Amino acid sequence: MNFEIMKSYLPLYKDAMLLTLKIGWLGIFFSIVIGFVCALIRYNRIPLLQRVVGAYIELFRNTPLLVQLFFLYFGLPNIGISIDAQSCGVLGLALIGGAYMAETFRSGLEAIDKIQTESALSLGMNGWQIFIHIIVPQAVAVSIPAFVANIIFLLKETSVFSAISLMDLMFTAKDLIGLYYKTIECLTLLVVFYMIILIPVSILGSIVERKVRYASFGD
Amino acid sequence: MQALGIDVLFKGTNMERIIEGLWVSVRISLIAVVISIVLGLAVGALMTRENIVIKAVTRAYLEVVRFMPQMVLLFIVFFGSTRVFGWNIEAEIASIIVFSFWGTAEMADLVRGALISIPKHQYESAEALGMSDAQTYFYIIIPQAVRRLIPLSINLITRMIKTTSLVMMIGVVEVLKVGQQIIEANRKSSPNAAFGIYAVVFLMYFVACWPISMFSKYLERKWN
Fold it and tell me: Which residue of A has its CA nearest to B81?
């Protein structure tokens, strides 16, 4: 292991990590938005839209991100829709993440017992108040563990972006291995940088999990 | 059809090649799934032991697998290990190793979860009835644990099938790579093939995974 070489690669890896983080967090942000909207549509059983959302969720949960990205990046330009690689990465991550998040949020919402709504109604709360003060706090507590798992899953999934020529960590490592043949140094740095991204998320996740556990009632 | 590039699929042996590519993906995932389930059951049972050394080792194993993207693991085994040890492994073997390594950890975690979710009074009641350890496991614990385990492990199978798409990145010629080759070979005659071919690959994965995940949902609903 040659530390001098590893040091000289650091700036490249740093840039790559920043790109991974940028696309990762943007994608996760949009996936939370999409997931929340889809979960609400399914929770409230809005006709027609419910079906569309259901089909979207099944379609994206049951196909790999790599294939989705290939379709978005190489397939869509054929019918006149060109998206640049970065937006494509964000879009792909948002779409697959949205499908996973929607399921997580929905199961959180549906885990809340009906008696909660009924009690709130008998206390004279209106629909909006019940949703904000009664349903959401409990649903959040229920879905946090799966939510954190989703975020880690999505951050790991960003590793396939190299396939659509985004200069992320994977791409940089592959590129440097090809150029200088310093395989071990490059792979070590790759592992280290993924740990820098993922370990804080995991630690933060378990702290949040512990914080919101009070809200789960009865056990 | 011409404009969407679906017609390319029916030219020459393209359809056969795509299906052969699909078979490569299926083969890799099948072998990895079988290995993962067998090893996962053993490792998962080990994880419930109170031994500190076993606990630390399995815990570290689980964390490594949980943190590293499967693609990084593929690169480590395919490029890294060959460099360090000087051996030569085929890309397909490397991917089977990685997916088994990853799948075993995930499966073990599910097994552990299922075993510790059985309330303690079940063990105690069995003991009070005079059952031996083996009897307790066979008649009381395993039947209950299996019901929690099966839907989750079926889910894991679909995840493993989906992850096989990554093997093209280390040069295995599977369905996605074959699609790419067909698109490039027909660049002149049908420049729009990418849309059709990738849509077909997309649907192939969906057709492979969707029934399995529906089945797991059905079992979950039936047993809970």
Answer: A184
A159/B72 CB distance under 8 A: yes
Q: Which of B170, B65, B80, B60 is nearest to A189 (CA)?
A: B80
- Distance from the Cα of A12 to chain B's closest Cα (Å) equals 17
Q: How far A124 CA sits from the closest chain B CA (Å)?
A: 34
Distance CA B188, CA B191 (A): 6
CA distance B170 to chain A (A): 10
Architecture of domain B7-223 in CATH?
Orthogonal Bundle (1.10)
Q: Is the pLDDT at A218 greater than 70, yes or no?
A: no
- For position B3, what pLDDT does the model report? 63
A117 touching B, CB under 8 A? no
Q: Please write the tens of the pLDDT for every residue from A60-84.
A: 999 999 999 999 999 888 888 888 9
pTM of the model: 0.87
**Domains in chain A, ordered, with CATH?**
3-215 (1.10.3720.10)
User: How many beta-carbon pairs under 8 angstroms link A with B?
Assistant: 113
Task: Mark B167-196 as b/e (b = at least 16 C-beta within 10 Å).
Answer: bbbbebbbbbbbbbbbbeebeeebebbbbb
Is the ipTM of this structure higher than 0.90? no
